[in-house]
Amino acid sequence: MDECILVLLAAFLLDLTLGDPEYALHPVRVVGKAIAFLDATLRRIGLSGTVGGTLLVPATLSLSIGGYFGLRYALHCAHHWLAVILDVFLIYSCFAFRDLLYHAKLVADALERNDLAEARVAVRRIVGRDVSKLDASGVARAAIESVAENFVDGFLSPFFWYVVGSVVARFGGFQPCVGAVLGTLTFRTVNTLDSMVGYYNERYMYFGRASAKLDDVMNFLPARLSIPIISLSASICGVNATNCMRIGRRDRLKHPSPNAGHAESCVAGALGIRLGGPVIYSHGIVEKQWLGDGTPDVSHVHIYKCRILILWSGLVTLCISLLGFGALI
pLDDT averaged over consecutive 10-residue blocks of the chain (329 residues)? Predict the structure, then answer.
């Protein structure tokens, strides 16, 4: 079996089985600590604006990629399969698929019990907005929006850059599996940078701009690929595939983010609901446009349907990736 396929399948099955446990040496958490250290260091020497934020990106990527190369070389010298195990571990750590579906289920279960307080607690773990004033429909909408958006960030984009890295390495005469891991690791590092410093507030308005823009660039194609993938998955799992594609194409650019609206509008169309609208954040109310033209009365039933739709979207993504690798072998 091709090593790229082996690593991808093993990582996907590990994530689907074990989820994404929290521990001190989790690769993404280690990258986060490096970012925090570099952030503090750059500010300490007076680089707290655009220049410092721009330098933060290559500095973090150098540590992330350099650390991978160093560790992989040492393991490869000991035994080739130790290096492959490292590759599996890193790709598995870059996925967040099972946890995405699991946290949405917690919200749906609480709403099904009519426990709004617990539903707010559960949804607070996956959204950045103020949930204290959300009614049941608002909580359900927030959960579905998070699942749809993070399908791209937490799953489709890592897959996409895994395939791109492998193809570039294969045609460039390098080891394809190493290129695949580098592609995914680069994306996850940039995505972590964006999640830590890519805010439009006084502290990060300029410092986080480079990270936020690069994250937008790396999510650009995966976000647009989410429309046909989710639409195909909608036809498989029995929701409205035609409306999924229609609303996805119509409303994808109504979101403030250049990428988040693609998957969200597809899900809204597939489920026959409306997503978006005014959202309360810590810095105030953001007036977002509505995505979809269905019912605004979203419930736990829609969350359950969304979970099935996104699960199938993940499986479709895996199958397409494996077919692509099969064509290259």
Answer: 90 94 92 97 95 97 97 96 97 94 97 96 88 90 95 96 94 92 98 93 92 97 97 96 97 93 97 86 70 93 98 96 79
Quickly list H helices, the chain: 3-18, 27-44, 50-78, 80-94, 97-112, 116-124, 136-151, 157-172, 176-197, 209-237, 241-251, 260-271, 300-328
Neighbours of 19 (CB within 10 A): 17
Buried b / exposed e across 54-68, counting CB within 10 Å, b at 16+?
bebbebbbebbeeeb
Can you tell me whether residue 294 is helix, strand or coil? coil
Shortest CA distance to 221 belongs to which of 310, 159, 265, 168? 159
Nearest alpha carbon to residue 52 among 35, 66, 27, 67: 35
CB atoms within 10 A of CB 273: 25
Quote the CA–CA distance of 273 and 306 in Å, as a whole number: 11
Tokens encoding 326: 């099969």
Per the CB < 8 A criterion, the answer to whether 278 and 300 are in contact is no
Task: Identify which of 187, 190, 199 has the alpha carbon closest to the alpha carbon of residue 156.
Answer: 187
Fill in the amino acid letter for 14. Answer: L
Phi, psi of 31 (to 5 degrees): -60, -40
Query: What is the amino acid identity at position 214?
Result: L
pTM for this model (two decimals): 0.94
Question: Rounded to an integer, what distance in angstroms lies between the CA atom of residue 88 and that of residue 160?
Answer: 16
The residues with which 280 forms a beta bridge, in sequence order, are 285
Residue 285: exposure state from Cβ atoms within 10 A (0-12, 13-18, ≥19): exposed
SS (H, E, C) 187-201: HHHHHHHHHHHCCCC
Read off the tokens for 258: 């250049």
DSSP summary character for residue 298: -
**The pair of three-digit structure tokens given for residue 297, joined into one six-digit string:** 């009365």
| Contact call for residues 251 and 268 (beta carbons, < 8 A) | yes
Token pair 């959204």 in the structure block, residue: 127
